[in-house]
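Course assignment 3, question 2. Fill in each field.
Student: A.L.
Task: Predict the tertiary structure for the chain below.
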Amino acid sequence: MSRSDDALADHDPGPDAYDATPYLPKRGGLPALRRAAAECRGCPLHENATQTVFGEGAATARLVLVGEQPGDQEDKRGEPFVGPAGQLLDKALAEAGIDRETTYVTNAVKHFKFTLAEGGKRRIHKAPDLRELTACGPWLHAELRLIRPAVVVALGATAGKALLGRPFSVTKDRGTLIPLPDGDGGRHGRLEGYVVATLHLSAVLRSDDRVAAYEGLVSDLQVAAQALRSRH
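Answer field:
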């Protein structure tokens, strides 16, 4: 199957199901996915978010970085990893010897989920639940099938669960090479890359020992960088 052919079978998810599958285009590359994702109504998160925040970066990237969901600034600008977490990521990638311009960045969930602070103005991040994560999974798996990366970095437990499809512990699994499973059971071609797990970027920013947390992030990214070199 061509890398630009992301055909998916039609199915009826049912009136109460959360599922983005019906919104995916039958063919086309990343631009077609991005256009289609802008109209996704696969779960209720689109109702309050400003817009869909789809992935960005090189279509031929050998490294894909997957976060949990867009934050407040990302939701407003429509771009992934442009807030404080994105600035932290840029710095850590540079220290790990990875050029961000050669990577692809995205999130497991494409809409910002939040609750309003007292007073109703400030939007506070709220983690997506399992139904929302599962509903948005087809977008992430379609991105990976098109890009075919050698390594995928899971930035936090939610991203790890979206990629691996099982209970996931960053503390236990971080910094190791985990085979990337086929999110669709291999129906659209086998994925042969690896997952490297690390901390959620906001966890680094909130850490009581930010220096140690940041050094751990860089160390995990260096594992990914070494894997890329060995698979070159």
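Instructor remarks: The longest strand covers residues 63-67. Residues 1-15, 185-189 have pLDDT under 50 and may be disordered.
Grade: pending
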